[in-house]
Predict the structure.
Amino acid sequence: MQTNARAVRRKTNANAKGQGKGWLAAALIGLCAMILIAAAVSKLAGAVQPGGEEVEATPRPTLRLERADVDDNVDIGFLMELIGTQEPKSPDMNLAGGEPTVLIYHTHTKEGYFPTDQYDYEPGDDWRCQDDSMNVCVVGERLAEDLRSVYGIEVIHDTTNHEPPKLATSYSRSLETMLYYKEKYPSITLFIDVHRDDYGQPVIPADYLVIDGHEVARIMFVVGTGKGATGTGFDEMPDFTSNYALAKRLTEYLLKIDDSLARNIRVKAGRYNQHVSSTCLLAEIGHNGNTLEQALNAADYLAAAIANAAGLQARQTGVLPLAP
């Protein structure tokens, strides 16, 4: 089902925050304590003495997440919570049934790819393509069709243009779309915001791999902690540990197919509307140096990863090389 949502403004109650961390390994307690101490000391960074001399900044303690890149402005307290998701958990994500269980939409609806002879267009500002048959919308439709026809998952693909009147406020409009469908179809479990990454100008060479003779763009997931640019946080915070666990599970599945199919997960301070559900994905399928053909091929593998996470099998064999 491909459709456009009308702008429907609604309020939503906050999702339940946080999940129990009782399953954290005891070995992590000491590590967390050390990080807490280091974080407390680091608050002195940038302080100014009475004489006007600036105190030398205390270095940010090093904390690495496996297969993840963390923005510098992500609070270390959030990183501590993500420690508990180092081992992927099984997400509470039932995608079976006759009602829609997946919503695919596009906050940045007109993101385009590198033109080719088959998909030729004149890239506008910020590599925008107004033709939905050649931009990120058609990648979302490929993903939706794979989930439907190959795995039997009921999907709604919304192509509402959320960019006007200002790109910077697109997320407020895509949130309206999410809430509209969430109320109309309470059966929806998984929300997928399909993007393509942006490397600006000049465009870097295409970053792709070849699987079974087909060029395939790489996939990256973005997880928001919800602290925001100001550091005060949103009123409704995302369940970022659950969203991160899902992203990590999908990433590891993709890497079993090919060890370069997925990029590291990007952990950022924004929210990206990931408070709407504990299973929200922001998927960057390729970038503006990739061709549309490469992105379409990548969507096939993302569908396989999603179905695997939901415990669903393909209706037919031999569709794709699956992870061992």
Q: What stands out?
A: The chain is about 25% helix and 15% strand. Residues 223 and 244 are 6 Å apart (CA to CA).
